[in-house]
Amino acid sequence: MSKDLSAGGIKIFASEFLPKGNYLKVNINLIDRVVGVKTKVAWCNKERVTERYCAGLEFIEMNEENNQTISEFLSYIYNS
Fold first, then answer.
1. Residues 6+ apart with CB under 8 A from 15
2. What is the mean pLDDT of residues 1-24?
3. Residue burial 10-41, b: 16+ Cβ < 10 Å; e: rest
4. 26, 37 Cβ separation under 8 angstroms
């Protein structure tokens, strides 16, 4: 599950701790399309009232088409 998508990264919820600096390949569902992105864990914290973790992932590698798709999606969401 994710939250706070931006052009530079995304915040996700995880069932286990993700060490800072780890690389992850994530697939982001943008309603009508799934975008694959290589990310790096910027931070990870345990949530207070649940058994899950919250982590900030920085986008480090994606093709131009996926970059454009995310930008258009964000523009649509914030300008609607």
1. 51, 52, 53
2. 93
3. bbbeeeeebeeeeeeeeebebeeeebebebbb
4. yes
Tally of structural domains, the chain: 1
Length of the chain: 80
Q: What is the dihedral of CA 17, 47, 28, 68, to 10 degrees?
A: -110
Question: Model confidence over 45-79: pLDDT tens digits?
Answer: 999 888 899 999 999 999 999 999 999 999 988 87
Q: pTM for the complete prediction? A: 0.87
Q: What CATH number did the domain enclosing 64 receive? A: 2.40.10.220
Calculated CA dihedral for residues 48, 49, 51, 53, nearest 10 degrees: -40
